[in-house]
């Protein structure tokens, strides 16, 4: 978290604001690292979007929110209002509230492991999906294993691609047959490239992933969006992904992120 205090030297209030800011950071258990920035002229005030002295910004956002800049910029003193009272500096509690809001906005989502998957390309294997609605040419498919805290099973999949020199657009689609006899469809859309010319068989990949499940045990996946990132080894035809869901503070799955090794061009 970046904390800045803008002031001009003759301002009688900036020292109190600085003391209150230190107290608020200490009370919130945050590092007392404050960047003091002196504004020396009207020109500086306009350039720095200076609302008045003292001004506190947390990660670039004014203590009173972005709407505070609607007051206009200028080389002068600033007044803060709290419960009908006016002061030339924000109170410790005002600063603590702003710190909580800003810190909380970073914690609205959290990552949670969904499953790890290992996919293996199988030459000559038949399709399990249709080309309808998918980009590129089907290059093949394979099988795999899914392991996770809430879903385990076996996978069958197809890969469709539009390839270029050292890169491709891909769509992997298939089904997870879970160990408790449910079926979960998955669909990915993403991009791959060869990061180093010295290793043309090693592909780096990133994709969005979505799911479709009729079984009530897995219907929460229907509102889960995922992304995965990793790499594919053309020599072995192996894919490996670590799938991570993103959950909102309210506990709703909003999206997912995946890291691991993946396969692109076969």
Summarize the model shown:
Helix content is 13%, strand content 45%. It is mostly beta strands and 266 residues long.
Domains counted in the coordinates: how many?
2
Radius of gyration: 27 Å
DSSP summary, beta strand count: 15
Query: What is the topology, as strand order, of the major beta sheet?
Result: 7-8-9-10-11-12-13-15-14
> Which structural class fits the helix and strand makeup?
mainly beta
CATH class of the largest domain: Mainly Beta
Largest sheet: 9 strands, mixed, barrel
Q: Which consecutive residue ranges, at least 5 long each, have pLDDT under 50?
A: 248-252, 254-265
Q: Separation of termini?
A: 45 Å
- Portion of residues in beta strands equals over 45%
CATH architecture of the largest domain: Beta Barrel
N-to-C series of helices and strands: EHEHEEEEHEEEEEEEEE
Looking at the structure, the CATH topology of the largest domain is Porin
Helical content band: 10-25%
SS field, number of helical segments: 3
Mean pLDDT: 85
| Shape annotation | elongated
